[in-house]
Amino acid sequence: MTRSASLALIAIAAIIACRGDAGVTLRVASWSDPIEQGIEKRYVERFSDARTGVRVSLESVTNQDEYRDRILTSIAAGTPPDVFLLDNIDIPVFAKRGMLLDVAPLMRRIGLDPAGFDPRVLDIFTVDGKLLAIPKGFTPMVLVYNKRLFKAAGIPEPTADWTWDDFTRAAKALTRDTDDDGVIDQFGTFFDRRVFLWISWIWSGGGDVLCPDGQHASGCLDSPATSRALRWYLDWVAKDSIAPRVYTLRHTLGDQFRLFNSGRIGMMTTGHFWLPRFRPYAEQGRIDIGFAPIPHREGSRPSTVIYASGWAVPGNVARPRLALELAGFMADTLAQRTRSQLGLEISGLRAISESIRRADTTGWEAVFDSAVSSGRVPWGARIRGWREVENRLPDVIDQVLLQGKDLDQALSEAARDIDAILARTEP
Amino acid sequence: MKPSRWITWTGFIGVMVVAAAMTGLALTVRHAILRERRAADTGSAVAVAGYLSLVTPVGPGGSDYQLAALLSSANTIAANTAWTGHIQVAWRSAPLLRDSIDLTPLDPATSALLNDGYATAHVTRAGREISLAPLLDHDQWNSVGWVGVWNSLPVEPIPSGVRWIGIMTVIATLFAVHLAQPGHSSRRRWTSASLAVVAMLLLTLEAGQSVQSAARLSTDVILNRGRMLAQRAATIPQVNENDIDRVLAGARATRIAGQLPADSVRRVMKGDVPAAVSEVALRSGNTLQFSMLPREAELETFWAVMFGWVGLFGLGLGFTAWAGAAQGQRRTFRETMVAWGFIAPAMVHLVVFSLGPLLFAVYLSFHRWGLIEPVRPFVGLSNFREVLGDPRFWHSLGVTALYTLYVPLTMAVALAAALALDRSGVRIRLARGVLFLPFISSVVAVALVWQWMLQADFGLINAGLAAIGVTGPDWLGNPRTALLSVMLLSIWVQLGYQMMIFLAGLQGIPGVYHDAARVDGAGAWQRFRRITLPLLRPTILFVLVTGTISSFQVFTYVSVMTEGGPARATEVVVFRIYQEAWEFLRFGTASVMSLVLLATLLLATWLQFRWLGRKVELV
Which of B139, B271, B579 sits opposite A426 (nearest CB)? Predict the structure, then answer.
């Protein structure tokens, strides 16, 4: 037999061998850091082990933007993953035209009790009565603070009913030139222009960036309450100088964590998702941290935003039932407990979040839990044009802080632009 | 002289291409019509399955149905005189209705697909394609049977469009054979070929009409049957009105209060999106409106493929005509073929990765195209109006133009470096390597390192400035310095590359010119101005054109270092296009921006060629 004939036979045998694999491969896509990837890998392997002939391929991407591009492209190409992690900001995009399976009527079939989930997190994923994802976890935005800096400054730690005045007083006391070289090297707080970090502050000051119907901004973004709240927030750097310079610390560098963990920032806005960034330092005794709800303006109700993600199944996958079972498996009790124990998020399952809170000796989980009671569904989970709105809003901060524009004028212009954005976005 | 052959191999290839294009056209039309038939059958099968699951009572102690009631419900539909085509319903694997075609047993793969609970399937029996939909249990979870539907659309043995194409294929092939013969005048040859292409276009339009009609009919069948079954279900008191949507699972269901339902399928415009709607009166007094994108409005891919075949037909015919004319000129012919052989790979690459996307961008610019949106309506010039009236877009174009100024700056520095390093020696080679290194480094890594270096409080650059008593600015945080910082980085990266190009140009200048100038007493500056610079003009033009094009395409540095900020001071046009497309999912307007960028680049390149493209006279 000639060599080429042998090679041809081997190739044919290989093709037959591949065709002979009658098993099913399901694809799960998520954005996750290495810790999360480890957990997800473990769970998809368990699912594969439990079902003969089913293989699960985990496609994890660390960068969330890249992840979104991939998901959108795969759906556009007609080859969506069988299960994918849905961020709350993308709910309106996928909700339109019924691109995702409604999991509400099928929850019990995949071994999940809807009543066991926190209704507030279910509410985020519910659009027109349809549940578009099985909640994986969620978090309200809160304040993390350095206890040692508070003690050193001789000021009381934040309480559950802290007000803005209390916050400003504490931040001023924490802002210090510790080595007397004429340069401030310890700041009370951290300023961030990204909307997802400051929207809670505006809400807790009685303002909002959109009107309640979500269809326009005029009359709300440029209202006195919002203007007053945003001015107070901008004053952290514009007047009070209680935060480092505005743009020196870009998020890609992760400097806010370095500064906080090294004791150069007293307080900063955070979600549960950043807990793993602080915890190792706390466990090593290098930092002593506490959490508090976002302070509110005197006379306004405390308010914060809740962010969540969940496992969704596209409506056009080849094996929806199997995909749903996998989604349920990824969100089941054991998976959520593992994630919660690592501090990645609050479990969407009430039994787990309660047991984690009871077992927590630091008191952190209790603060997150109490913050949930004043939590709101993020605008991004309801408004299709939110990404554009979120892109336009930081211009107001830039215009005021960098270009000296009058805040009310900047808000008024932004409100007009956002009205136009929302008007051209099909609901 | 050796007589010419009746038909050459190349002529034969051309004829084959023509025949292939015609056959492809016929198969595309046939496939499209079959697809419409299949869609009508699938939609009907899903509607019947949905209806049966709504109206059939549940059996004792489970979610499966009462078999007698299921049989009765299925019989009611099959006996309806308004129902054209055939229907079969199976419980488990047992057929409940008998028809001329026996569908049982299904093969394991189809059974598995249906048992998964949601997917539809297709089988071929007795030469007919049959669409199957799973019959789900009352909980809509387990599959307890299936519904098969076929011949929902009237069946013609051969659709008229396909019939005409079949006849025309034979005629066109014979015509191509005729063209491949020697002896025709050039004018006659090309006129005939052009007329044939026009005839082919007309034929394509005629064939497309058949598909268009089938698609329209298919939409009507789906919506009419859905309406009929949903209306019947709505009259049954036990049926939950909220579940009636499942009869037309592929359509969007809206409940409208206080409106009488229309009794036929209508075409309406919902905003700028066409919709086909049918309506059902609910017991509650409301109207349930089903709407879907008419299938005839979803034929863009079909038309693109059809015109692709016309293009291939034209190419084949042109090739045939040329092969016929080239008989007897063997040398010219062979040289041309060899040349095309060399060009072909690059041509294919250019067409697939440049020309194709460019044409697609033009297409997108006239549509509201949201990547995952199933509806992508034609919006005329609306995207153009929006982009051209958007001050933020013009701002980003202005920022890009400003950024482009780094190109001449880099060129000046690179030319100086090239002149300094236009010698031999180990140190010189090392210096060239060091300068070239940034160009071959990872763009993202370079951007991140520079981001650190430019950090205001603890960055290397400000630390260096502080060492000499200067307080450095917030490079990336200040709108006045942010773009400058990105430009500095770009200069650093591009310097080595441009220097290498200049070095190559310098080494291409014959030494004899400099020697002669020296003999004539010219100094270094004079030699540079009178000899080096003029002779480098082609190199300068090359560097300027490629540098300008790449500067207009800057994205990564901005994305990594500034994200377009602060205060949009670094929001270059490609970053804006990326945001528009991938963040806001507005690919139509993003495409318009790309086209404006293309026009700007074409203009800039034309101007550069006009100013610098004169030929150098070596006197």
Answer: B271
pLDDT at B159: 59
Chain A residues whose CB is inside 8 A of the B456 CB are 245, 248
Chain A, residues 401-420, CB within 8 A of chain B, namely 402-403
Contact across the interface for B474 and A245, Cβ inside 8 Å: yes
The C-alpha angle with vertex A46 and arms to A43 and A50, in degrees rounded to 5, equals 145
Asked if B478 reaches chain A (Cβ–Cβ under 8 Å), the answer is yes
Buried b (16+ CB within 10 A) or exposed e, B223-251: bbbbbbbbbbbbeeeebeeeebbbbbbbb
What's the average pLDDT block by block, 10 residues per block, for chain B (619 residues)?
58 85 89 91 92 87 81 85 84 79 81 74 86 86 87 68 70 76 75 84 87 92 92 88 81 77 84 85 87 88 92 88 72 78 92 92 91 81 94 95 96 95 90 93 91 82 89 87 94 95 93 91 90 91 94 92 88 95 92 96 91 61
Question: Using the beta-carbon criterion (under 8 Å), do A319 and B372 form an inter-chain contact?
Answer: no
Answer whether A190 touches B (CB < 8 Å): no
Burial B372-403 (b: 16+ CB within 10 A, else e): bbebbbebeebbbebbeebeebeebbebbeeb
**Euclidean distance between CA atoms A17 and A26, whole angstroms:** 20
Shortest alpha-carbon distance between residue A365 and chain B (Å): 34
* Angle CA A71–A77–A83, to nearest 5: 40
Is residue A144 within a helix (H) or strand (E), and if so which, with residue range?
strand A142-146
Q: Do A245 and B477 touch (CB under 8 A)?
A: yes
Structure ipTM: 0.83
